[in-house]
Amino acid sequence: MAIAKAERLMNLALCLLGTRRPLSKRELRESIEAYMEAFGPDRGGSGSDDSFNRMFERDKDDLRELGLVIETVENLDGDVGYLARRDSNRLPPITLDAEEAAALGLAAKVWQQARLAGAASGALQKLRAAGLPEDVDPYGAHGALEPRIPVHEAAFEPLMLACRDRRPVVFDYRKANAAEPEARHVEPWALECWRGHWYLAGWDRDRGAERVFRLSRITGKARSRAARFTVPVPDVVTVRETVARWAGEITDRSARIRLRGGAGYPLRAKATAVRELGDGWDELDVPYGHGLDAWLVEFGPDVVVMEPAELRADVVDRLRAVAGG
Questions:
Q1: Which of 219, 202, 223 is nearest to 211 (CA)?
Q2: pTM, two decimal places
Q3: Has residue 248 got a pLDDT over 90?
Q4: What share of the chain is helix, strand, coil (3-state, %, to 5)?
């Protein structure tokens, strides 16, 4: 369905760019194969006309959002026509200095491990054809740098395309504390790599709230849906800050725990305050974020949660679940 729409938009853009005079809706309907197949003479009627008008208006709006300048012209008889003048849709000459070209080269090399490698190399070739100076090597200025962003998760590409096309997705997701995955219905906003892991930020329809998902915990295929988003996409999607906040690295809350001496060095590294209690125990203040209860359980009898009460209850529940098998 996505490919069919892209082909229809491309044909409409070519018609509007290739005409020397404004074309009416009727002429466009009779010229574009996708419109003919859906709303041809054998499918006539007012219902078909209304459906075509809605599709055409959506297509026209989509092309305008993509940057195509479409003019609406009304002739002396009152008929309305459409065209896209080439001079209005011609991009200005591309001029890049050595530093800008080097930045593009580094960006292309980032994706060498992903299926985007071909697209990145193709983009640089197009820049060459568009006027990038031959004496500027986009790779050479910083040839000693070899940036890499590992992309091993199978869900990366379908989620990236869904973010780009603004299409909801469905995938099975296994939480850190869950034995079995569960289906999640998400309106994807953005992907970001943080500390070697890829995360997706979006709107979880089932929970009615913003959520962040670690791609390595997605099982099976991420399947896109044709429905539209129900929640506006934020102007700025801060995946990294959201993940850091969930992990307790950006938080205004803290938890007070007791830690056995000589144990729990990762907790000591994160602690904002450490107090010696004697008898082989220390008291620590640690940032309290999402997932802290699961982390504290890993230290077993070396950790005792003092406050807050809800964190203590979560840790006790987890320990009981482990003890019960």
A1: 202
A2: 0.47
A3: no
A4: 40, 20, 35
